[in-house]
Amino acid sequence: MRKIRIAIVGVGNCASSLIQGIEYYKGKQSGDAVGLMHWEVGGYRPTDIDVVAAFDIDRRKVGRDLSEAIFAPPNCTTTFCDAVLRKNVPVKMGKVLDGFSDHMRGYKEACRFVIADETEATKEEIVRDLEDSRAEILVNYLPVGSEEAVKFYADCALEAGIGFVNNMPVFIASNPAWAERFGAKGIPIIGDDIKAQIGATIVHRVLADLFRKRGVRLERTYQLNTGGNTDFLNMLNRNRLESKSESKTEAVQSVLAKRLDEDDIHIGPSDYVCWQKDNKVCFLRMEGKLFGDVPMHLEMRLSVEDSPNSAGVAIDAIRCCKLALDRGIGGVLYSPSAYFMKHPPLQVPDDEAYQRTEEFIRGARES
Ligand SMILES: NC(=O)c1ccc[n+]([C@@H]2O[C@H](COP(=O)([O-])OP(=O)(O)OC[C@H]3O[C@@H](n4cnc5c(N)ncnc54)[C@H](O)[C@@H]3O)[C@@H](O)[C@H]2O)c1
Predict the structure, then answer these.
(1) Domain named Myo-inositol-1-phosphate synthase GAPDH-like: which ranges (predicted)?
(2) Which residue of 94, 167, 282, 337 has the fewest CB atoms within a 10 Å radius of its CB?
(3) How many domains does the structure of the chain reveal?
């Protein structure tokens, strides 16, 4: 019975879906387990993941058992498993830094973060918590734009000597200086910014690749996204958006036959629509020229529940990180990062990233 002991920073909607999923797949067999890319990754099943520590800064989450905190407001993702057993893991107060954006104060508490009154934790306390809990991997789910906070927690992971899965777009795995720090300590890292199972990014990439393979010249494209969760509310502060836009745009640019002029490509979170909650809607348009320079265009609308869509990938990223720990591999895990993340250090088309990741899991890569 090998287990994977993880710590989570940011007990928001994505963490909720991940933890619900770990519970949901208990008692299932590979044949009736719907919604997974892999039932087993190197012998690890979804339910082999144990969350042993968690950090947040919200009054309604800090101090509560993780099994309750994941359902506390402002979390609003769908509940597909309400029988999450008590974990005996209280959510601990983290360090706020730039995790909270002031523009949120203008919204109802039910829809936004509310900072807890507890004293903020120091780096030494968080490192001690990570060590005491014997966590092996820190999974990062902080809000977009939390540059300082992400670096603070990445430092904690380095100091505690544990792996890091960076699910959001502050660049750590794809920043050579940070990647080097993980490499030097022999600690595996997967990042940055998780690519959902069937989300706007992978669909846009696959369609762009299709245009290229079918000889259609893509001339202009947009991808507009709306949602009503705190991720979208947070991103109303445009000053926090730079790395998210870069991550999403580069994910598409990198698979084009010819990069588009920046005026011809528009990709990003577009608006916050409160009643949408965790439902994300993507409007995608691609304009091109086919045989004889004849124009064509494609319009697509994708509607998905945002957080389970990302958890279905995070559950594999965590297991790949654990495989690296088992095998004594440190530094950036290039193949899993390319397949699971929007902004990996090495961008390759998704088919190739998939093949490389399968090889990694079999032990034939990055060993
Ligand atoms: N849903 C997806 O498909 C998807 C895809 C790619 C990336 N992401 C990214 O993953 C991240 C998490 O998404 P989410 O929907 O769970 O967000 P969320 O807003 O639901 O959760 C963020 C959590 O972080 C907490 N937090 C804020 N500052 C903190 C700090 N300093 N220390 C500890 N906790 C802090 C908040 O209280 C909240 O609980 C976001 O950056 C999002 O952009 C999500």
Answers:
(1) 199-307
(2) 282
(3) 2
